[in-house]
Amino acid sequence: MNSFLKLKQELVEIGDSYYYRLLAKQLKKSGSVLDVGCGRSSPLKKVKFKGRSEGIDLYRKSITDSKKQHIHSTYKIGDIRKLSRYYKPKSFDSVIALDVIEHLKKKEALKLISDMENIATKNVVILTPNGYYKQDELDGNPYQVHQSGWTKDDFKRLGYRIYGIRGWQKLRGEHAEIKWKPWFFWGFCSFVSEYLLYYSPHLSFDLFAVKEFS
């Protein structure tokens, strides 16, 4: 990796630090986490979660890559659209789906969310783009195609609290990349706007949705 790309990656990590802190806060009281559609490099590794975690994903290469990074305690290759087949009710404290539901059709994703709520004892955490963003397969993974878009109102109807992250919606495009140049300037603007739009998720690029159970 050349010096420019390395610097850019470091700045991306700094830009996502707010997201990681928010995720860590939601998992603070959890002893176990199910990471649905965990992918190859789950954000869970950034929050240094110390409890038991399991990652489930249908794409075998993603599971293989994640195992090499030792992100989760255990892994399962499985179809998340059939999540209830693999896990019993109330079997994990927290269930998370980060950048996942947009890869499913709306009806499939709603069923997944229902299954996640049945499995969780403390909370469910979902991250998804605000609205629909076109995305084709990525790195040979056909499951990376976007099939649905989500709004704040979708989650309000389901009883979730919603927060805005990753800054002003119009600054980012496919793969959450900053659209405008110079990249460093607009990336900084996105970082600053994230703090301003935390309670205005309808203007943010990503929706961070949380549902807690008593």
TrEMBL record:
InterPro entries: Methyltranfer_dom, SAM-dependent_MTases_sf. Residues 28-130 form the Methyltransferase domain. It comes from the Bacteria. It holds the Pfam family Methyltransf_31. Signal peptide: none annotated. This is Methyltransferase domain-containing protein. It comes from Candidatus Gottesmanbacteria bacterium RIFCSPLOWO2_01_FULL_42_22. The lineage of its organism: Bacteria, Candidatus Gottesmaniibacteriota.
